[in-house]
Amino acid sequence: SKDVRSSAEIFAQFPESNNTVEWHIAMDEGENHRFMDQLLSAAYFADGNITTIDGMRVDFAQGWGLVRASNSSAALFIRLEADNKETLFSIQEQFKTLMQQIKPDIVLPF
User: Distance (Å, rounded) from C-alpha 39 to C-alpha 50?
Assistant: First the structure.
């Protein structure tokens, strides 16, 4: 390449984000789809825009969160991302609160 910058210099120009791994929450057979139906019915985020294609994605000004039911196993998949740790924590707490309203005994990794 004709660019003389190092890869570190090139990547440094891109914004950094804080994100989670894809968490898998095991459930009983079919429970994941029932849970998602209830979650979508109850979902409200004052500062977020909800998209319901393949689960529930909520886009915020500085991040997003996604919960979806697996089609191949009895589980939910959760991913969260934000511009900074404080916003990531806020998104986690909003998702946790909503998910525990639907299933108070759900065990979440956050």
Answer: 12
Q: How many CB atoms lie within 10 A of CB 63?
A: 21
Work out the angle at residue 51's Cα, subtended by the Cα atoms of residues 90 and 96, and round it to the nearest 5 degrees: 30
Reported as a single tens digit per residue, the pLDDT across 27-68 is 999 999 999 999 999 999 999 999 999 999 999 999 999 999
Question: Tokens 């915020």 sit at which residue?
Answer: 60
Q: Residue 43: is it exposed, middle or buried by C-beta count within 10 angstroms (0-12/13-18/19+)?
A: middle
Q: Which residues lie closer than 8 Å to 28 by C-beta, 6 or more apart?
A: 74
This prediction has a pTM of: 0.85
Q: Which two tokens stand for residue 94?
A: 């909003």
Task: Give the Cα-Cα-Cα angle 101, 107, 110 (nearest 5 degrees).
Answer: 90
- Written out in words, the top-level CATH class of the domain with range 17-102 is alpha beta
